[in-house]
Amino acid sequence: MVSIKSSWKVFQKHISPAAVATALAAIICAVILFIPPINGYADNGDFYRAMLSNGIYRLPTKDNQYIGYVVTKFGILKYFNENNVAVFSSQALFVKAAVILNKLLYSHRYFDIRFLGIVYYVAFLPGIYLLTKALTGTWRRIRSYVIAILVVLIFADASFILYFNSFFAEPGMLISFLYVVGSLILLARGDYSKRWKLLLTYFISVVVLITSKQQNAPLALSFGVMSVGLFFLPGLKKAKKLAVMGGVVATLGAGVLTYSLINKEFNDVNQYQSFSHGVLMETGDPSKNIAKSGLSEQFALMREQDYYAKTFDTVDPSSHYIRKHLIGKYNFAWIIKYYARNTDQFLRLLDVASKDIMVTQVKAVGDYTKDSGKKAGQQSTFFTLYSSLAGAFFPGKYAFLCLLAITFVAVYAVSAYIDFVAGRLFGVVRFFLILGLMSICVFVPIVSIIGDGDADLAKHLFMVPLSLDFTFIMFISDILNHQLWLTEQPNQDTMINDNLIVLGTPSNNAMIKSLNKDLYFKYSDDYRGFVSNEKLSIEEDYGKTIGTAQLIRSPENSKKGILVLTGATPEASYLASTQLNFKKNIDQFTGDAIVVDQNNTHYSYRFKKNKYIDRNLEHKRTISKNSQLIIYLGIVFLALIVIGFGVYLVFRKQAMMNGGRKNAKQK
After folding, report:
1. Residue 462 lies in a domain
2. Is the domain of 419 the same as that of 531?
3. Side-chain half-sphere exposure of 161, counting CA atoms within 13 A
4. Under DSSP, is residue 523 helix (H, G, I), strand (E, B) or coil?
């Protein structure tokens, strides 16, 4: 048992929770992406957007290269690339980096998708480290390592990692998201003196995320809300406030730029499918509804039709007739007015969007290469525990999603208020973070339905499960760290290196709750009063009125002490503090725990056999206390030695003289 405990201490000292999370994520992701059979996502027809503009093309083959199997080998254009940029996206940064790496290490003619996986992999791991560091702070308790494992379980889930071996834009969004929330929480904690690095990381990541996809343009408003919390950071000088303001402007500008650069083809696709997959859906007879809104009933036949149909079209979406008699007569303002008149239909569409909102694994495509021996379209089940459970049990109702968002905002609003009144910042910054994330959860389904109907919902709603996943783990970590409503606690280094005085009640000082298991007089499960122990039998009502002063060993360092002055009420806590406010009061107590009631009747108890926290310090104090006696004894002892040595010399000299006289007589 001692060996296990000592091994755990060594492990805690040398390996942080963030390092554990990063190492686990590195192993799991490497197995998914690079160990045969290779896993990824097959092309659903969207890969061309990232391929052509980056000089990558499909190699000719007799096999079908879509939907069923993951294709790992592509060609690299040798000559001039006349393909215009299909869409404006920051994804090009990752793809171009992968092409350069591919040319350096593999080939100038052929591109292996795994090099793109490597680029995402290398960028992903620091994000895991940053997020885990933000959630655990400087703590290295068991609960900190539990949080690290949860981070891996959620964000290294294969449903996310499979995107790395594909040309989808979602990996850049996932990675940027980790950097955004991680850097923002670390800024709130104030653990780093050079905050400009975290600020730069935050705003760059926000811009990269917003510009990953055209659909992300409205997210600029949500990230703008998150950024409001940065203005509450203490010690922000004028230059840094201007820098934060510039970052917020850049965030909003990225959203405007992304929206303005949506090309005509992309806009036509969305506008058409917002009608065929939105207006015409979830209603018994759509022809009557659209007729009331000024469109011909014949267009109801286009229900569920894609702009790029997989089989055949009822009509050609790009034809002159459709442009003149349909697309030319409605726009997104028309769609908003339509849904305002048909709210029941709109709510049903929102329920459709929410039904599988936590199903993050793309079900429409296969996850294996053809040479793996798997069937076409077969899904990988390796390390998909979290996504499978979340997809199966999360209620698929938009009303529940809104209720959940309101609940989280309300819970963290309490913490923000408490911290704001107390002059702290963590709860305030965290509130704006949660508010921004919940706005994503509430408004992204609305924007998706209005903008593209129920087509490609899984990809359009990608930010919703990401936001919920982070909020869930943030909520769990705040509970485990006792920081849900009360955020002010000393960090790990302080707990290890310093003696502490902790004052308050369980309701106004979270650290009291975290130390309850170490107290001699413990609180009840509801923290409304003290309970009996072997020293004192405490009646329930009496336990609600008494205050205690308890000197305990620090749970982080047995050679350091924590003086806990606490009671179930502020009055009881104050009463406990009065027992130690003057030296004459302290001198009357000899134990390590004091109990005092409303009548100022106090009792002293000894729980530890050795009253000193540090035995080495005890020895030093004993020596210091008796130093004068020790000095006198030392002088006496030294005098005796000198006298003894003198006597010895006298006798030795006398013996030598007697010996000399005898020799003289003999002669």
Report:
1. yes
2. no
3. 32
4. strand
Cα-based torsion angle of the residue sequence 98, 100, 101, 103 in order, rounded to the nearest 10 degrees? 120
Task: Name the residue range of residue 551's domain.
Answer: 492-616
pLDDT band at 443 (very low <50, low <70, confident <90, very high): very high
Instruction: Give the C-alpha separation, 272 to 492, whole Å.
Output: 57
Tokens of 484: 């849900």
**Hey, how many other C-beta atoms are within 10 angstroms of the C-beta on 566?**
26
Pair (474, 505) in one structural domain: no
pLDDT in tens, 122-173: 999 999 999 999 999 878 888 999 999 999 999 999 999 999 999 999 999 9
Cis ω before 218 (30° cut-off from 0): no
| Helices assigned H by DSSP within 356-397 | 385-393
Give the number of other CB atoms < 10 A from CB of residue 649.
Answer: 10
Which alpha helices (H) appear in 168-235, and where do they start and end? 170-189, 195-210, 219-228
Q: Mark whether 427 and 391 lie in a shared domain.
A: yes
Are 30 and 146 in a shared domain? yes
* Total number of domains constituting the chain: 3
Q: What is the pLDDT of residue 621?
A: 55
Contact 228, 432 (CB under 8 A): yes
324 in a domain, yes or no? no
| Strand, helix or coil for residue 368 | strand
Average pLDDT value for residue range 398-414: 94
Q: Which two tokens stand for residue 312?
A: 């055949």
How far apart CA 321 and CA 207 sit, in angstroms, is 40
What is the Cα–Cα distance from 294 to 326, expressed in whole angstroms? 10
Whole-angstrom distance, CA of residue 278 vs CA of residue 295? 15
Q: In angstroms, rounded to a whole number, what is the distance separating the alpha carbons of residues 178 and 132?
A: 10
Q: Residue 37 and residue 72: Cα distance in Å, rounded?
A: 12
Q: Within its chain, how far is the Cα of 445 from the centroid?
A: 23
Mean pLDDT within 382-397: 91
Residues 6+ positions from 610 with CB-CB distance below 8 Å: 618
